[in-house]
Backbone:
């Protein structure tokens, strides 16, 4: 594939960078999946902070092998290349960071965003966005992580009814259309400041802020993973992002980011 990394030329994509985060932006009108394009670029040496954004994906991917469907030009669909100096055990904190940056950016638009464990972005209990982080290793050594972010921005109710009836969009919640570029600018700024802090403290501060932003604790939940479906009361999270669920039988079970894919 012949992607070239370049400074943003698209009008809306100028002046978005927050330090290294978004320092190069590849804006594609249509692609398969921004995560796939970003992984390809990363393997060919693209710098940390390179961002791939698309108006439309033809093979967008969600967690657990699900498709991520979004009508053209109405969503924020982007993937960030990172090369963090972090132990592998701390990588789940990058997903926490991405979810947190999304929630804070949406809050910056005046909407009450929260996080559903592990990394769904909710408004008023309905999903508005999600994160798909994919790491690439050579043996024990981390090559790169691609953090993919999808947020329903101006998606209309009729489209959501067909795609995912439980979902919502920023426009539905705000009652007006919103700029994807403005959202992206807020998102990159929220991401950058926390990424900086994560490289200092391995994400301890991010973990604490993420835990406070979670909408899940104290609720009855059903978590679906490779084990099937697990039901119970969400009691607490730990510093690696594990969720403790109290089953009706009284048994306490811990599920991790890896479990739910
Ligand atoms: C989820 O299942 O909640 C995660 C959804 C992640 C979707 C985004 S859209 C941009 C990037 N490219 C993809 O193919 N997936 C992610």
Residues:
């Amino acid at each position: 594939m012949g992607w070239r990394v370049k400074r943003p030329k698209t009008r809306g994509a100028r002046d978005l960078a927050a330090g290294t985060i978004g320092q190069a932006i590849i804006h594609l009108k249509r692609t398969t999946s921004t995560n796939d394009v970003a992984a390809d670029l990363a393997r060919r040496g693209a710098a940390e902070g390179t961002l791939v954004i698309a108006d439309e994906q033809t093979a967008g991917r969600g967690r657990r092998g699900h498709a991520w469907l979004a009508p053209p030009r109405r969503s924020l669909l982007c993937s960030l290349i990172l090369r963090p100096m972090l132990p592998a055990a701390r990588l789940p904190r990058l997903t926490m960071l991405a979810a947190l940056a999304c929630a804070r950016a949406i809050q910056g638009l005046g909407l009450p965003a929260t996080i559903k464990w592990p990394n769904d972005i909710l408004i008023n209990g309905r999903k508005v966005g999600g994160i798909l982080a994919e790491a690439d290793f050579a043996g024990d050594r981390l090559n790169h992580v691609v953090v993919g972010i999808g947020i329903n921005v101006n998606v209309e109710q009729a489209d959501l009814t067909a795609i995912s009836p439980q979902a919502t969009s920023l426009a539905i919640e705000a009652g007006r259309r919103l700029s994807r570029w403005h959202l992206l600018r807020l998102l990159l700024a929220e991401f950058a400041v926390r990424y900086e802090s994560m490289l200092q403290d391995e994400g301890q501060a991010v973990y604490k802020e993420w835990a406070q932003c979670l909408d899940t604790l104290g609720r009855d939940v059903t978590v679906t993973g490779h084990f099937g479906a697990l039901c119970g009361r969400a009691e607490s999270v730990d510093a690696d992002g594990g969720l403790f669920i109290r089953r009706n039988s009284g048994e306490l079970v811990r599920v991790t980011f890896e479990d739910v894919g």
